[in-house]
Task: structure prediction
Amino acid sequence: MDAKHYRNEAVLFFCKSTNSKYNSLIFRRFTRASEAIRYAVEELTPKALASCSLEVDEQHFFGREIRPLYDSADYPLRRRPIKERAHRA
Result:
């Protein structure tokens, strides 16, 4: 993803529930792809992140493809400190 794409609108699809009986798909729209990426990496559980999908400008990123977008030098937002991220896992 180019640096300019981080500013574009994005859609994130994910399953937040770990209970397979109630495993409904959640759809969330973000005004900027960088915000969607931050939400996916910092707020979702590792299991939810692994099964989510991000759409930006008709490009799709699935599960493991999202974390490298967050770690990229082009990522424009401040990242949560590593210690705080470790507690979320």
